[in-house]
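To close the section, here is one more complete example, presented without commentary so you can practise reading it yourself. The ligand is flavin-adenine dinucleotide.
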Amino acid sequence: MNIEFSAEDELFRQEVQAFLAEKVTPEMRREAERTTTVFAEKDLAMRWQEILVEQGWAVPAWPVEHGGIDWSPNQKYIWGEECAKAHAPGLIPLGLRMLAPVLFKYGTPEQKAEYLPKILSGEHYWCQGYSEPGSGSDLSSLKTSAVKDGDDYIVNGSKIWTTHAHFADHIFCLVRTDSNVKPQAGISFLLIPMDLPGITVDPIITIADDHEVNAVFFDDVRVPQSNRVGPENEGWTVAKYLLEFERGGGGASAGIRESIASLKEIASREVDGLEPLIEDPGFAGAIAQLEIQNDALYYQELMTLDRLSKGESPGPGSSLAKNSSVEINQQINNLKVEAIQYYGLPNANKISLNGHSDEWVGPGYAETVMPRFINGRAASIFGGSKEVQKNIIAKAVLGL
Ligand SMILES: Cc1cc2nc3c(=O)[nH]c(=O)nc-3n(C[C@H](O)[C@H](O)[C@H](O)COP(=O)(O)OP(=O)(O)OC[C@H]3O[C@@H](n4cnc5c(N)ncnc54)[C@H](O)[C@@H]3O)c2cc1C
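Output:
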């Protein structure tokens, strides 16, 4: 495996660094650093998307004729790495990185023409309607039904944990179109505008006090059959293809390196007895352990990159990388909470100053620690839970 970036790659890196230095303003960087939820704030993400669209760099992975760029896997990796180093805002992946690849592969010419330009421009904002109460890991047991009526389907049922459904104007949904076959064989993939009569969105407020996820209800919602992607009852194949993109993010180690740097910063300012916490051998050792784990993740990513450069699929490496990156991030959050001590009290950020203000009363570096710690727990569940990834690794890597 070749793990060196070429001179040409390094020139590209310099071009990316210059662009990010100019476009990620200090305000934008601060806003991105204050994000504690899984996705960036919608407004921030859309502002960043607009800048990248103008530069032509919003969707490197799309086919060139649809606005993509002919970057090599190495260049795409460098782009992700440098964005993390620059603390650039994240883009919302639902339309750009999850639905779009599905439309390229399974969409009709009409669906591509209708949806892709609006995903890129930000005119359409999508959410993902896969999970249901009782159907998460066991997704193929989903029950939301779509029954044919003339040229339409009548959709009834509910979805849960739907990220950003309260912002979205469209939802891509898995629905049951046949209940008399094995579960995977009776599912279809539908594109549904959220303003259709019969759709309601209820907020779910998390223990971090964030409104990021929702429950979505469908009550006799009439959806044209032309909104189906792929053949009827073959939605499971479409759904699994989309999950490859949801899970195969890649390039997490660069972001983790930044988090470890901020952990070190906190540990050098917080005091344990008379000395900065970072001087404590136990604490310093725990940080070093995380750095070693992250180096291992980095090499795992380079191995995946090597496969991609040879035209191969990412393989089970994406499951290994997902679990490692989630575990390292959670351990960083644990140490940060330990370091900031009483500033980590749940909802401490709501403590009023003199009873008149809701301004944060602790040091700036502590403000996001507890919300991130709480939100970070969800990463073991979404996009394929830790145990489900381990099952994949057990089969694909260990041959069990
Ligand atoms: C913050 C957040 C955002 C989300 N956003 C979306 C979204 O936008 N759209 C969407 O459709 N869904 C979304 N989800 C849902 C997510 O995909 C599911 O929560 C996930 O698939 C797990 O399903 P579940 O919640 O039903 O848990 P279950 O499947 O009931 O799992 C419960 C526990 O059992 C374990 N388990 C289950 N099956 C096995 C097995 N075979 N072997 C070993 N252990 C197992 C799991 O690992 C887990 O620990 C989101 C979830 C979260 C937390």
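Once you have examined the tokens, check your reading against these statements. The chain has twelve helices and ten strands. Confidence is low (pLDDT under 50) at residues 351-357.
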